[in-house]
Amino acid sequence: MPVCPKCLKYFRTARGVTFHRAQPRAVCNVRDDRDTELVSAAAAPANERVNHEVDDALLPPSPPEFQPMDLDPDPAWEGGENWHSISPSISIAADSLGRVLVTFPRASEIFEGGETFLTRFELDPYSVCRHLVPFYPFANLDDWRVANFLLTSGLSMRALDEFLSLEATKNMPLSFWTAKDLCAQAELLPSGPRWKFQIVPTTHPTREPIQLYFRDALDCVEALFNHPFFADKMDFTPFRLFTTAERLHKIPEGATICGIILSSDKTNITNMCGSKVAHPLLISLANIKMKVRNKGCSHAFLLLALMPIPQFIHPVRRMCGVLEEHLFHQCLDIVLEPLKQAARLGRMMSDPVGNLRYCFTHLVSYIVDTPEARMLACVCGNTSLVTTAMYKDFGDPHRHPSRTAATTLAQLASIECDVLDVDQYFAACERFRLNGVSHPFWRDWPLAEPSKFLTPESLHEWHRQFWDHDVRWCKHTLGATELDFRFSIIPRITGIAHFPNGITKLKQVGGRAQRDIQRYIVVVIAGAADADVVIAIRALMEFRYYSQATTITSITRDKIRASLQEFHDHKDAIIQNGHRRGEKTKQVLRHWHIPKLELMQSVAPSIERVGSILQWSADTTEHAHIKVIKDPASTTNNHSYDTQICWSLDRSEKCRLFDTALALRGSTSEPTSMQQLGRETNDSDSESSERDKDRSVLDGIWTSKRKTTSFFDVAARLSVSPPDSVPRPLRTFIAGSTTIHLNYDPSLKRVPIDIVAERFKLPDLRGALGDYLNREGNVTQNFHTFGGQRRSPPDVHLPFKELHVWYKVRLQQKAYHDPSDIASTFTVHAHPPDCLLKYGRYDAAIMNVDDQWQWPSSGLQGHAIVHVHLIMCPVLPRGSSGVNRFSDHFLIYAQRFDIVPQGNSSVERTTGLHVLKKAMRASGSELGEVFPLDQLRSYAHVVLRFGRKADNRLTSTNCIHSSPSFFLNKYFKKDFFYAIS
Q1: How many Å apart are CA 905 and CA 748, to the nearest integer?
Q2: How far apart are CA 747 and CA 145, in angstroms?
Q3: Which of left, alpha, beta for 840 (phi over 0: left; psi -120 to 50: alpha)?
Q4: How confident is the model at residue 876 (pLDDT cuts 50, 70, 90)?
């Protein structure tokens, strides 16, 4: 039974403990205002690490490799009658790298009496029936599988009836024969958070009654908090990670902080006609690790409510908007009231392994687009939603003071007119630049500050600002025709969008297309635009890339600020050259009234408070809208959308939960295995096997069915396989931090060397192979470098006569900031000329030439930029016996690019890019050598320098062949950008 941790009194339920501890005069009451004071240590140096989760992000206790550090804080402080002296409540440990992990042992205490997912499953009213029939209300496993497929297939009721009426279906031993019977049986399954319905009263008339569909917010939070899938993907103890200790914040003693994430945005239900719109409110937990929460397949965002979209009756159209905003806050008050109560008093909740924790629900982030964020902050248009800046201040190169909740509430309190007189009240609010909402939803939510929980959002703020402004400036700079032509001849990258018809005529440009355009915009405008204009565009690009890092140090934070300041230092050139113009008037605009530009000033402060901005992107919530709104709406009869969406979503969630429970119950006979799930212990091999089995079951249900191929795992399996079980040499292997993968079958088999040289137009191939063999000597070396003069004659004798040839090789790396994540796979092509490709297709790559330096941590130090022209493997002569050590190696023929110094810098000042030229021999031929394939480390995107005007004879296939000077485009991939910047 749950027990109070202070007075040891037993209660029947965890909710009883919550109510007991929430009594104001209870001796064991723990209030949110009774915080544990945390010490201030030395200020962090410039290379401190800012946690990439939220400021109150959670992490299990410090790992064993961290050693305790001595810290002598003041153990007492002045306070009221409830305050008393306690011992220090933080733990600081250091690892071998000198990093400091600060944890809070007194935070997130655990108590007995909690419930696991399976325990709650057994509390269902029909659990007795399931002891007799495990699949009740379905007859057997096959019956359940068919029902689960149909219920989650997205088919309409009519389509389900048609399927069930088929003769083949009637021969199946099913327990249901109509869609109505199927849905009725689904209602008997254990439910998640239940839906509620309420008519919201309004003070002004509407065309239809205001209907609010919502779920209990605390039930949704507890459903996420208790979910077994998140057992090892959720943090409970607050932490911060630095290279030395710095000032720390306050947390409630013994409490677990449940960081609440909300998101709302209108989304279209009907695609072609009807204009039906839904306004979903989503909820998630910041405790769930960012890389898990940001995956749409994890279902980490739950639909909390369907906000009403009213039609007010008022003679003034603007007042209808004010009434809609007032109603939105009123509905938020209804839906979020349980979270506000839990933020004040706390709530006992069970974690995934069955421990009770005393949780406080504080609002960490509200993910919205800019117009809705302004509505939530209760400010009018042309006013900053997080600072005191007005529209005339949006172009200032500094951040204005924050608009605090206290300031907004004080301004609202000073308005004395009647709130029900919407016209007069709105007029009174205008002098404060407020939107007329009298009771913001956040007014009584402890610690809720709009300037903090309205976190910067990359999709609507940065990428949309790029398309609406940066691209338009470039269009006015180069002209639409020249801009489109330059985009059309950019060398293609496999897996990334190419724009053969340019970008100026694109329609319905989404976030993905905007990000793809960003990869090329700097190299496209270089040389044609004024230098200061290029610098301004490039500075904003660097600002976006640095701000999207998953882990941000103080060095990165300073680069973010410096990039934004560099833009402000050069932005006047955009106006002076007439590139900033009105969309309709086409007249030059001589101001910077861009709200999203002003919001960029809040990015660095927000990172310091809540960590990486990438975790608050609307990309995840926009994808969630498909699963929780659009897919359920597609199964309706186009009437009463809200009701049918709730029914459909409820059935889908019941199916997933029931499937999870059945899988877990079938995967282990001991319920204690759920207690072990997600814990770091030294258990026996059998217990570890049970946990792995549970994890495999959960991953099969709650992760995407489309897995990203990890060539690292493939290479690891092949490396330990028996010698005769797989062909040698291995087609997939690890080289440094990169996995290299070749197709099993070569593109050309057993081709004579001279024919290969002729087909690939490499007259010195035989001599290059001879030099390679001379450098190898009797012992195979690890690294080769570019030599000087060719020493082997063109007709040198080689121990092999034929080659296997591949036209492409795939390179896969780990994510730059998180080596546990797999980054995108890039393909390096080495295709010879043919009837379609006159000059062939040869891609550039980064090659390691010094084993003292490792990619990507060393950047270009110890590496060369090469053009890969041939991928090959020597072949033993037919009928020969024995082993030839050269036939066990994959080789490449690569030509080198030299970096052209730019004064005292290695990069060009305007673009921030390395300028390249082809390395040449004294004879005038291009410098090329043969290297082992395992020296490749990364794909590289080399783009020609267009100059003032691009040659109209250029195409995407001949531009590299015909150009004397190039850029190394670091913007094609963020991890590449971080590596060489």
Answers
A1: 44
A2: 44
A3: left
A4: confident
SS3 813: strand
In which order are the strands placed within the sheet that holds 808-814?
A: 732-735, 738-741, 808-814, 822-831, 841-842
Separation CA 50–CA 247 (nearest Å): 12
Q: Comparing 266 with 113, which gets the higher pLDDT?
A: 266
Backbone angles phi and psi of 55, in degrees to 5: -60, -35
How many angstroms separate the CA atoms of 410 and 591, rounded? 32
From CA 711, how far away is CA 679, in angstroms rounded? 28
The proportion of the chain whose per-residue pLDDT surpasses 90, expressed as a percent, equals 59
Q: How far apart are CA 664 and CA 961, in angstroms?
A: 59
**φ and ψ at residue 612, rounded to 5 degrees:** -60, 135
| Gyration radius from the chain CA atoms | 32
Distance, CA of 976 to CA of 816 (rounded, Å): 8
Q: Give the type of residue at 891.
A: L
Sign of the Cα pseudo-torsion (968, 972, 978, 981, in order): positive
Plot region of 274 (φ>0 → left; ψ -120 to 50 → alpha; else → beta)? left
Distance CA 32, CA 19 (A): 15
Q: Which amino acid is at 940?
A: A
Query: Per residue, what are the HEC states of 753-801?
Result: HHHHHHHCCCCCHHHHHHHHHHHHCCCCCCCCCCCCCCCCCCCCCCCCC
Buried/exposed code over 882-905 (b: 16+ C-beta within 10 A; e: otherwise) = eeeebbebbbbbbbbbeeeeeeee
Contact residues for 834 (Cβ-Cβ < 8 A; gap 6+): 840
- What pLDDT score was predicted for residue 7? 67
CA–CA distance, 175 with 170 (Å, rounded to integer): 11
Least confident of 167-181, 496-510, 784-798: 784-798
d(CA 551, CA 975): 12
Question: Do 33 and 592 meet the contact criterion of CB atoms below 8 Å apart?
Answer: no
Residue with tokens 């999203």: 596
Q: What is the DSSP string of 831-886?
A: EPP-SS-TT-EE-EEEEE--TTS-TTTTTTTTEEEEEEEEEEEEEPPTT--S--GG
Please give the Cα distance from 671 to 60 (Å, whole number).
23
Close Cβ partners of 685 (under 8 Å, ≥ 6 residues apart): none
- Using CA of residue 709, residue 628, residue 232, residue 254, what is the dihedral sign? positive
Contact predicate 342/361, CB 8 Å: yes
- Could you report how far apart the first and last alpha carbons of the chain are, in Å? 57
For the stretch 355-369, pLDDT in tens is 899 899 999 999 999
Contacts of 78 (CB under 8 A, 6+ apart): none
Tell me, rounded to whole angstroms, the distance of Cα 950 from its chain centroid: 37
Read off the pLDDT of residues 309-324 as tens digits, 9 standing for 90 and up: 999 998 888 899 999 9
In this prediction, residue 689 carries a pLDDT of: 58
- The tens digit of pLDDT for each residue in 198-230 reads 999 998 999 999 999 999 999 999 999 998 888
Residue tagged 């109209």 (tokens):
952
DSSP collapsed to 3 states, 572-624: HHHHHCCCCECCCCCCECCCCCCHHHHHHHHHHHHHHHHCCHHHHCHHHHHHH
Tokens of 313: 């009756």
pLDDT of residue 73: 34
Measure the CA angle with vertex 716, ends 715 and 721; round to 5°: 95
CB atoms within 10 A of CB 783: 15
